[in-house]
Amino acid sequence: MTLTSDQIALQNFLKASNEAAKAKGFVGMVVEDAQFWSERNINSVEEFEIYDAQCTLWDIYKDVYGVRPRHMDINNMSLGELRSEIDYLCKCLEGQLEAEREEKELLERAKAETKRRIKEAMTCVPLTQGLFD
69 and 56 in contact (C-beta within 8 Å)? Predict the structure, then answer.
């Protein structure tokens, strides 16, 4: 198979992406073979970036809402539209994670207060008060 200039650019892009990911400690790598991507109608860096953004949107949407975005026509969204939607979903996910952290912190404080009250009730002495006051 003779590669086009776009396919060669794609292959080089994927190799560079894998090298950067490996340097960051990622173990999952993207297939670098241009023929593999050609069989999936992806023959340029831009087409790969759109495909990658579609996959990311597909997964992160489910993380945020619990369902896949089957109602969205992600196959006809531009790369800019996909990235905007991904940015929005990332902000939603960050908000959810922060709320979960706050909820966990409140729960831990409530557990500690419950333990304190149980201990106080069992000793019949307020733990906030000195023994000889």
Answer: no
Closest CA to 17 of 4, 31, 2: 31
Could you give the CA distance from residue 125 to residue 133 in angstroms, rounded to a whole number? 11
pLDDT at 126: 59
Crossing angle of helices 45-65 and 5-23, in 10° steps, is 50
Is residue 42 a contact partner of residue 7, using CB atoms and an 8 Å limit? no
Neighbour-count burial of 35, counting CB atoms closer than 10 A to its CB (0-12 exposed, 13-18 middle, 19+ buried): exposed
Q: Residue 109 has what pLDDT? A: 93
5-53 tens-digit pLDDT: 999 999 999 999 999 999 999 988 999 999 999 999 999 999 999 999 9
DSSP category for residue 71: T
Q: What does the block give as tokens for 65?
A: 């809402």
Tokens 């557990």 map to which residue? 111
